[in-house]
Amino acid sequence: MPLWKPDPTFYASPRDAASAPPEKLAYVAAFDRAAEKPDAIAVLDVDPGSASYGSVVGWTELPYLGDELHHFGWNACSSALCPGSPHPHVERRYLIVPGLRSSRVYVIDTKDDPTAPKIVKTLEPDELAKRAGYSRPHTVHCGPEGLYLTALGGANGEDGPGGIALLDHTSFEVLGRWEVDRGPQHFAYDAWWHIAHDVLVASEWGTPSMIEDGVVGELLLGREYGHSLNFFDLRKRKHVQTVDLGDEHQMVLELRPAHDPTKLYGFAGVVVSVEDLSASVWVWHRDGDRWAATKVITIPAEPADPDALPPVIRPFGAVPPLVTDIDLSVDDQWLYVSCWGTGELKRYDVSDPFHPVEAGSVRIGGIVRRTPHPADPGRPLAGGPQMVEVSRDGERVYVTNSLYGSWDDQFYPDGVGAWMAKLDSTPDGFSFDERFFPSGDDFRGRRPHQTRLQGGDASSDSYCYP
Amino acid sequence: MNDGSLAALVALGAFHGLNPAMGWLFAVARGLQERSRSLVLQSLPAIAAGHAASVGAVAVLVALTRSVVATRAVAIGGGAVLVGFGLWRLLSRRHFRWVGMRISLWQLAGWSFLMSSVHGAGLMLLPVLTSSGTAPAGHDHGLASSSGSALSTGVFVTAVHTLSMFAVAGVIAVLVYEVVGLAVLRRAWFDLDRLWAVALIGAGTITAFTAW
């Protein structure tokens, strides 16, 4: 039954989102690499005033094995207030949770008991294949026409192209392929938009055969992973322009457009440059009547003893930072950059997006460093800051440590472990919250990936009003 | 046209103007996007024009039908259609879909026409259109003249209704843009779709009953 008043977690503007009550729960996707136990959605208590703060207070297991939960999103968000097709009386209550390896999509209801989410619908892989021609569903965004679900792979025997499927808002059925004209775009990964400008941006990783068994050295050195941004007309569903960052910039992953709907810029993270193993962050922007991208952050590789390195990077004698995720605060002021290889989470002041200023950094994990968490200083940690999520008010930052099963195994061959950390972020400081460190057995043998915060977070909602 | 019908037309216009989904919210969004009050004001006539086209189509159609078919049959048939439409609106989980924020004033008028039509804005005027006060005068002048006066009735009804809708939507849009801010949506945006559906069913029932 629809609500009589708009869902209180729909915010007209980024300012409203930041000033709304803070999250009390976080939902974390957790997967079993061995595919012997079902993956799960873990519910974490993130209310500092609660007795169970920092612990797993809910655990919903899936009915199947081997899904590899990865990213997920809400069924509805602030875009429901957009004036062209408002539907503000639906509810933000379902998590749309794709299995990246199985291509299943679960719809999980958080309403009745937020700490015990219930699976209410399962979309089988052939529905995505038959109706949209895609597989390996990845990113979910609640948008103007329905739910947009990016997918890395083709279907029905095809490796690619990947792209975007559209799902119905209420029935969660696959409506079909979103693209009317995809132009030269073949690789897919993330997609988001400038909703008030009818612009969609998409990024590139690789097709399933290029990623599922780990990174393929020959493809990487051959510069064959994705290295472009693709811009589409959100209304006409047509490809408008490809912006190639240069083929040395392998794997353009996370897209973080400005939340302010009057702005037309955003940030994209690049995993690795094959020229010097550095990672980079780019800002896309308008240049006259075209799109352009400018590199604004470069993070160099750290030299290391080859004997301390896993085989995949031993020949290079250095640890690549591997920027696998970035996140932009709702007020568009702070950009958080995960360096999963070196074990560092960096914070930049991006008030001027073209001139980011580093404003804090913390170390945890890392291929060589294995920096412990201050809550347990005697325990070296594998993995590194990976998925990073920022609360709407910008004060709390959550990170998890797993990237993707087969890649975890390559870069952390002795085991990536499982941990999650929280940082307090204020204009004057950026440091670990020592009370918050769920790790190891808390995740019951699974590896944590993306975090979603109750009531929305910095990468879940888009706003039509400044 | 008696006073009662005129008041009803104005009241329904105000009701339509009040609904954020009927256009004032779009006008505000366009203004906020460019930080320009004049853009809010420019958007309103286009929105009103689209609404008028949607309402006018129904008004003229009903007036023309009444000039050739027994009024009572039109009222009962129309009332039944209206109740059915209202029930569909009430029970359907579908919402109108329009993708796009960067649109011209022509497209905005088109959007408003579609939005009003899908919501059955014109249908809601049926009780007024079929009440005896709006019967075309002089039904012994033959078809041509009666359809002429039917047409003018339809135009008059549409004009009064749209003017009221435009005034209310305009005042709200400017107030929200200048003074109140969009936080008001969270408190004051009741699910008008359901109220709207109830209004359609009510209007249909009244129309059919008064003709019976």
TrEMBL record, chain A:
Classification lineage: Bacteria, Bacillati, Actinomycetota, Actinomycetes, Streptosporangiales
Enzyme class label: oxidoreductase
Catalytic activity: methanethiol + O2 + H2O = hydrogen sulfide + formaldehyde + H2O2 + H(+)
InterPro entries: Se-bd (IPR008826), WD40/YVTN_repeat-like_dom_sf (IPR015943)
SUPFAM superfamilies cross-referenced by the UniProt entry: 3-carboxy-cis,cis-mucoante lactonizing enzyme (SSF75011)
Protein family per UniProt: Belongs to the selenium-binding protein family.
Disordered: annotated segments: 441-466
Residue ranges, compositional bias (Polar residues): 451-466
Alphabetical list of Gene3D superfamilies matching this protein: YVTN repeat-like/Quinoprotein amine dehydrogenase (2.130.10.10)
Name assigned to this protein: Methanethiol oxidase
Pathway assigned to this chain's UniProt record: Organosulfur degradation
GO MF annotation list: methanethiol oxidase activity; selenium binding
Listed EC numbers: 1.8.3.4
UniProtKB/TrEMBL annotation, chain B:
Top-level lineage group: Bacteria
Transmembrane annotation, as ranges: 6-27, 39-64, 70-91, 103-126, 163-185, 192-211
Keyword annotations: Membrane, Transmembrane, Transmembrane helix
Protein name: Uncharacterized protein
